[in-house]
Amino acid sequence: MRTRKSTQERRREIADAAIKVIGECGLREFTAAHIAQEVGIKDGTIFRHFKDMNEITLAVLDRLQESLESAPQFTGDPLERLEGFVLNRLHSVTVQRGIQSLLFSDQLSHALGAEGPRRVAALRNRGRSFIRSCLREAAEKGLLREDLDIEGAVVLVTGTVMGFLFAATDGALTAPAGEMERRCWRTLRSALARKQVLP
Hints:
Elements: H1 7-25, H2 32-39, H3 43-49, H4 53-69, H5 78-95, H6 97-103, H7 107-111, H8 116-140, H9 150-169, H10 177-192
């Protein structure tokens, strides 16, 4: 006998399916029917758990935030923390393309209406703030090149994640994803870090 899922479990399941649908198929396919098909339920059942599509879209944003905030807490020196953050983001691109696609496109913010752009920008800005704080601390500790522009480096790091997303989505990674993740980080680190002087 199958046990019935709680409303909370079903809401999470529907929001996760919506992320997948938007991320993989775009807003055009963001319909109750398509989400229900992904979950394996009838489309009318969705509206037992959500009053309308806007409420589902808000749940998608909440799940994105929850997913990003549940990422591992990175420790170590600032460059090790930045490495953990970058590798986690690059890996999530190949594992959860829908989440990263939504963060790097305007699809979700448009679906949310007037409040959307502000909430999505706030999510993205949290990541930028983490990158900036790692870079500032690394600069204070003398770990970065002296001529490095911190704000330019923040854009470089976030741009690397975006570029990785597009390459993964287009099937253009020239090596297995795990290897490309490490290669991207090594390239970033060599662009940011002070060259070590050997004794």
